Amino acid sequence: MNPKTALLIGGNRGIGLELVKHLVALNPSKLLVTCRNPETATDLKALTEGNNNVEILKFDMEKNADRRAHV
Description:
The longest helix has 12 residues, at 14-25. It is built from three helices and three strands. It is globular, with a radius of gyration of 12 Å. A three-stranded parallel sheet has the order 1-2-3, covered by helices on one side. By secondary structure, it is of the alpha/beta class. Helix 1 packs parallel to helix 2 (42-48). It has helices spanning 14-25, 42-48, 64-69, and strands spanning 5-9, 30-35, 54-58. The model has no long low-confidence stretch (mean pLDDT 85).
């Protein structure tokens, strides 16, 4: 299976980071991964380095500005 686009909310650690690993291996056309603080998401950044099809987005459900920015 090779998905065209995937969106994963909360991919910075734990189960979310493991899902990112599996999705990257599937080589989707575009993989959007959200986390609260992309600048401190070192494991996520390292995993996605060199993958032009992966984009990390800042998204915090508790902040209205973040929710509106991606609508």
